[in-house]
Amino acid sequence: MIAYLQLPIRYQNPLKHMKIKVFLFIFLLFSTCKLYAQLPAGSLHGNIISFENEPIPGANVVFQNTKLKTITDANGNFSFKNIPAGTYVLIVSNVGYTATRQNLVIESGKKLKLNLQLSKSKQELNEVAVSGIKNRYKISNSNTSTRMDIPLLTTPQSVQIVSNQVIKDRQAFTLNEISNSFTGMKANNGNGSFSIRGFTAYSPTDASFLLYNGIRGNLFLWSQQPLLYNIESVELLRGPSGALFSEGSPGGVVNFVTKKPQVKERYEFDVAIGSWDFKRLSADLTGPFSKNKKLLYRAIIGYDKSKSFRDYQDKENIFIAPSLTYLFSARTDLNLEINYAHQKTNQQYDNGTYIRTNPDGTFDFNYYPDNLTIQSPTDYGKTDNISATLTFNHQFSDKLKLTAIHRAVNSKLDYTDHIPVGKIRNDSISRSYQDWETSRFSLQTTAYLAYQTNTGLLNHHIITGVDYNRYGWTKNDYQYKPATRISIFNPDYSLDPPAGSVKAQESDDNKRITNLIGVYVQDQVSIGEKIKALLSMRYDSYHAKETPLSARDNKQGDELQASGLIPRIGLVYLPATNISVYASFLKSFNPQTSNNVLSGGPFPTRRATQYEIGYKGDFFNNAIATSVALYQINYANILASAPTEENSHRQEALKGTRSNGIEFSATGTIQNFNIIAGYAYNNHVILSTSTFGKKGDRFSNAPKHIANLWLKYNVAKGAVKGTGIAAGVRYVSDQVGQITNQNFIFPSYTVFDAALNYRRGKYNIQLNAYNLTDKRYFTGSRSSTVTGGLGDPLNYRLGISYLIQ
């Protein structure tokens, strides 16, 4: 406000009076501007990118309640000079993106650098770029680990994300095929068993090992390789994640982010052929379903069929995934997604290649040919998996949001199988026969509120929610019978399968229902821009009951009741805007899969505790994300056989195991180069001696060293513009195949891959070659020294895609 001077004169000339006022106004304005200019000043430079790490040109950058404003250039850069020292609120916005606010402190004589990432608004949704070298490998944000859309840089947990572009560049069609892009993770065999931080993640015992959009309910059974037809990205959350997801593998969980309907019309068609009569067709269609673009759709259809270098491993998949999104407003939306997967196989899963035991107790991994299998041509497998997920989001205000999700999954399996019994003698093996029909289900309801608020100098991102999960099986009809002994080199399958009159040695006919109720609260507290603390607590209550359905089930029904608190504490410090260091403490507990009183149950729950410290850094203008993590995981109350004279079925809970190690990873794009690199050291050992193993023994399928590198060069100019050249290498050190036999060690191996693609207009042609040196290697074991999972020999895939958008 300007106070005008009133002159004490008797007669005031109006014109003269006006001149005096104008003169005084100009004088005061000039003095104020001069004073403003003399205040200590600083500067601000920054870069604005999208969720896909694309620069955002033309974005508005404004200092709130000032006249300072600018727009970003073609590379997303902006700058301000001579900013008076003080505290400001910076607002960045652009059409199609959610505006963001950033508190700033401008200091005299100092240059401040700021890099921000804008996410697509609900009207635009999140769509990944699909052409040229704009396809990036790095994804900077994930809301799965904390259920908050915050940068990985400020997340106090080791999280790695494989983008859709990586999946395409590798021509990976299953989780098994893309798992080698994750640091410290590997597929143990040809089904749903994986090793993460030295722990085996396997669906039967880890109900939430595989998540879909952060929700429990695995679409695929343990005997299947999860398909990637409808997957936008794959996230690996390392370590126990019980604070949000209840039980899971102590080594980590895998989250599938599915493809969602888009506002922009887009149609993609893919055809691929490859070794062993591999054929694959897929279509991905999306766009508005209504003229007002409030109703959006996506339809994904896939079909593949293949044989194998192994005998009797034919496989056929049909996959259908329609989804709808209705945008009530910019604040409210509803999404329905349905997945259907049908699989028909000659063998439900590969039991592995024979391994010869030498007279001195050592093993010959190269004695038997690759193609031989213990399974019979009379075996078969058929699965039908279906899921439906309904997601509702409502933004009450800029600070309060509600998310409610219901997911229903049903899987039916019908298969027969031959498995090894005992040891190989004189190149022959005894076998048993399994006949199994089961129907499994999962009903998951989740609702949570996200709220942002300030208390003094503290900024809070609070998540509070409740989960209800009802899962199990309504049918579990299983029979285990003796089968004929066969010669390995000259097998006679004429008596397969065993006659119906052969008495089953083991028989199950039951149902099992588990009810889980969980409540949790989480608060990410920001103290300024450099310090963030994550505090969360979850309470879970389980009740499970297994009920015989007929006299054929010779086991007493199990019943389980378990409950407990699961804490999580994390601290992040950002010494610079692109670097963070963190420390975290994570816990989880898993109810036992068996609590039969005849075996000595009920038993205490399996508990995992992890301590982790790490570093994360984004470099080369935030194009490359790097991370280093050091961890220790203690896993207690593993069940082991402890028979007595009175009770041959008795079990006991053990002290458990300890896994510790270090991991390094780098992912991103530098100019025309895409890169994924990683190294993991892990030491996973048993802590006590029992029938499970001896103290200090190595855990099975847990190599101490895993290293991987994938490098792609994209030609952006010249006559061969649109060409991509890639090469990759993966090293896995030796690993114990069975805990009870520490001499059963799979040799280390190194595998080389390569790829070549050419993109022109709407077409992309791609050739991938895997295991270029035709290395013979074993990936892991199931439960015996008779067989082991064998890696694929030299093979290729040729794919053609056509994109309309």
From TrEMBL:
UniProt keyword terms in alphabetical order: Cell outer membrane, Ion transport, Iron, Iron transport, Membrane, Receptor, Signal, TonB box, Transmembrane, Transmembrane beta strand, Transport
A biological process from GO: siderophore transport
Presence of keyword Hydrolase: no
GO molecular function, one term: siderophore uptake transmembrane transporter activity
GO CC, one annotated term: cell outer membrane
UniProt-annotated location(s): Cell outer membrane
Residue ranges annotated for the TonB-dependent receptor-like beta-barrel domain, each copy included: 334-772
Predominant location category: membrane
Membrane topology annotation: Multi-pass membrane protein
UniProt domain TonB-dependent receptor plug: residue ranges: 152-253
Family of the protein in this entry: Belongs to the TonB-dependent receptor family.
The protein's name in its UniProt record: Ferrichrome-iron receptor
Upper classification of the organism: Bacteria, Pseudomonadati, Bacteroidota, Sphingobacteriia, Sphingobacteriales
